[in-house]
UniProtKB/TrEMBL annotation, chain B:
Its main location: membrane. Signal peptide: none annotated. Keywords: Cell membrane, Membrane, Transmembrane, Transmembrane helix. The chain crosses the membrane at residues 27-46, 67-100, 106-125, 137-155, 175-197, 228-250, 307-326. This is Monosaccharide ABC transporter membrane protein, CUT2 family. The keyword Membrane applies. GO terms for molecular function: transmembrane transporter activity.
Amino acid sequence: MANGVLLQMKNIHKTFPGVYALKAVDFELRAGEVHAILGENGAGKSTLIKILGGIYTADQGEIYIEGKKVDIREVHDAQKYGISIIHQELVLVPYMTVAENIFLGREPVKGGLVNAARMYEEAQRLIDSYGVNISAKSMIRDLTIAQQQLVEIIKAISYNSKILVMDEPTSSISEKEVKFLFETMRNLTAKGVGIIYISHRMSELAEICDRVTVMRDGSYIGTKVVRETTNDELIAMMVGRELKNYYTRDFKKDGEVILKCENISDRKMVKGVSFEVKKGEIVGFAGLVGAGRSELMKCLFGLTREYTGDIYIDGKKVVIRSPADAIKQGIALVPEDRKLEGLFHVQSVRFNSTIVVLKEFIRGIAVNRRKEEEITQAYIDRMSTKTPSMEQAIGKLSGGNQQKVMIGRWLATSPKILILDEPTRGVDVGAKSEIYAIMNDLAKSGMAIIMISSEMPELINMSDRIYVMCEGRITGCLNHEEVTQEKIMRLAAK
Amino acid sequence: MERAASSKKSNVAYLANGIKHWFKDNLGIIIALLVLCVALSVNPITAKTFLTVKNIFNVLRQISTNLFLACGMTMVIILGGIDLSVGSIIALSGCLAAGAVVRYNLPLGVALLIGVLVGLTIGLFNGVVISRTTIPPFIVTLATMNIAKGLAYVYTGGSPVRVVTKEWQFLGAGYIGSVPTPVIILIVVLIVTAIIMNKTRMGRYIYAVGGNAQAAEFSGIKVSRVKFFVYAYSGLMAGLAGIVLASRMYSGQPTAGEGAEMDAIAAVVVGGTSMAGGYGKIGGTIIGGLIIGILNNGLNLLNVNSFWQYVIKGAVILLAVFIDYLRQENKDRIKVSVK
């Protein structure tokens, strides 16, 4: 590992009207290292990255690149100094090809026209050099999320950047693709690139990162060498206190079967799946992205009308053709993609909390506002959601608090079966732990919970049983006592 | 008893709170409206005429047609759609209602009902196509706009269908007490629309579908039913506007309502509703409609050349939306920082 210091940010301050977003933050990145930034949502990670990327300007403080003081005032400056940022949200143009996206804004030109032949050739060569199996001529919208993420990374690298920032790059890709991503990262660091890595997943730190800097409430807390620290120590630094019982789970046996599915198929992703869930049980669903887990749940919730197979609830066969049917049968689904499938961004916490249960408090033709506020407050309290008021637009809350409102929305329907699809994606450590505790309470009260998750530790620590899916089929079921990460992987990637 | 009293009190509190919010949310355009009114009241040319009861009622009478459309259009735009057919519906509904009286000697009530139903039918048709297919609302309503306009010309052969009975004029040109009839109808329509938007489940669902259709579906909302309702309502409003206008003009005219959809959209947008859907208020639309109506009236009183009126109106729309944009930008910045 080369030890030259690539980047230094010293004493960075940033205020927004009324808020001190960054207080005297220091950060250092060496050539050839992967340096993680850890911190809960709102800790100031994004603000720091945005200052580095020229989206915000610091009020105070200096930035040095390879020892030279630089002034980054706009995005263009950052690019000039060899800084590339891969944002959490993909910023590719869906109706353009992979090559067009990679060369967007700097297309090879011949005689005033875009030299398409050269562009595709170069793009393909770039893609191939990372051993990725994507055609430069594919349309972005035809790629999977994981493939899109790879394109984004290749695009960032193609600027020959010295400093690469990755903001939660693994939040939407599967284990196998994560491996591939890590390999790519190692290739880059071997060439002397410095990588800043932002992630909520503690388990990834040991695998890929050399050092880690922890931030909390806009302040710099400390920097550690990953090999010399423990998860517990890092979590304590992040939340400012010891987090006892990160996972809360009282395992329990012998509830009666409440949900039984037989031979469910949707003619596309789900191929003849049978399983059952008992009262008071948390049943995990493991598998790679594309294994058909979310699609299976969409059948159960009536979002896929064209499915075959039988669903039994409490021993009775039921027909579910719409979400309204599913809700009537006592099923609730907290979807995978909060932003796309769950939130009404500009609307208030109140609006978001009660949209499913409105019909329960209609007085005459009007929504009973007082009753609505009572219910909203009840679920804010129960989930300990942190929001300035129930009229706050939900889009302004942190990921963890948004997710709490989403779960509260569905608990308000008093479901018998709660399906949680990636319940802690984009949720910070503190809120994660709280969500686990709530899941445990719900299971104890007799609710049946189905949890789809790509996070192995959470599946293993929370589930009574784990069904593993691969290419639309269930390839195995592991009990809490016998489950290990290796066993799951073996079943998931046959 | 005590409980009832306290609940009554908090009802008042809710209402007060609502008015406060309405005021705060629309501060920019309310000020614009006041400035416009004050300017017209002090200007030596318009001072004598503008602030007379007769002129105010006259303005409101003219505005009513646009605000009928704007009520429907507010819903449509919050839903994330657009309805271009409303202007043509005015023509068709007016012509058919007038024709029913003049050509078939049908009773007035039946004729007016026909007019309204014409609007409702086209709205329902828009609703069916838009909710059942993925054809963009812009295209669907562009088509029905042309169809409705064409049918109005076909039916009338291009010339107005005149109605000369006194009863016919009541709806658009008459008075209830000393208040013009269309103003009374307008107030009723505004109240009904405001209740739907702010109080009912359907209102909530309109915001939900406009804000995030996929999330709405995941929430068990029947998205197609909401779309169907909104386009039907917009058509109904246009039908109503059609008969009121035909009554005011003593005739059904195939050229009536030309470009009216654009004035309605302008009122909605000046009123602060987002073209992206999911956000907006009927309270803003009312002020937007008033600004455009009073501006028209003021320019007429000032004897401004009607060609120039278009230019000024366009500039005012742009200015109003721009001020709103600046305010939103500011608000966003402050809110982000709270995080």
